[in-house]
Amino acid sequence: MFKLLEIQNGSARYAREDGSVINCMARFSHMPDEWLPFTAMNADTLSHARAVWASLQAGEAGEIAPYVAPPPVVPRSVSPLQIRRALRQAGLKAQADAYAADLDDEAREAWEYATVIMRNDPFIEGARVALGLSESEVDDLFILAATL
Predict the structure, then answer these.
(1) What is the Cβ-side half-sphere exposure of residue 11, based on CA atoms within 13 angstroms?
(2) CB 142 within 8 A of CB 74
(3) Does the structure show a pLDDT above 90 at 2?
(4) How far, CA to CA in Å, does 131 sit from each of 28, 107, 138?
(5) Beta-carbon contacts of residue 57 (< 8 Å; ≥ 6 apart)
């Protein structure tokens, strides 16, 4: 069995919004010279894990930094209906339709009849440039589309 030696001051951060999980760096008796990443949970049952939780709750490693939600993941693809709804919500649907109307038949058919819209599709890149959007704005459209 190993024991908690120390939690690195300032390394603790809530890993869940509800405060039930905390990430930190800790040293234990079995590896006293190494700082190890450790995830402590209020429901831990192992003695060393309970010791980490208790130490964190007692403030022995300093203040616990607030939870920071991870950035949303940009979907690789969305359905045509989803992207069109996102474009409409963003006030860009008419501009995107006008861009598509000016394309050659093959490209326009790909947009009109696609069963999936890929984020890395050349049509999307062309539309991004034509509509004056940044990469992050297109990413935001795909993130929005995935929720619709």
Answers:
(1) 17
(2) yes
(3) no
(4) 56, 17, 10
(5) none
- pLDDT, one tens digit per residue, over 83-128 is 999 999 999 999 999 999 898 888 888 888 999 999 999 889 999 9
pTM: 0.64
User: For residue range 132-146, what is the model confidence (pLDDT) as tens digits?
Assistant: 999 999 999 999 999
Place of tokens 């209906």: 81
Please name which of 88, 100, 87, 94 lies closest in space to residue 127, comparing C-alpha atoms: 100
H/E run at residue 36 = strand 31-41
Burial class (CB in 10 A: 0-12, 13-18, 19+), 106: exposed
Tokens of 127: 């539309």
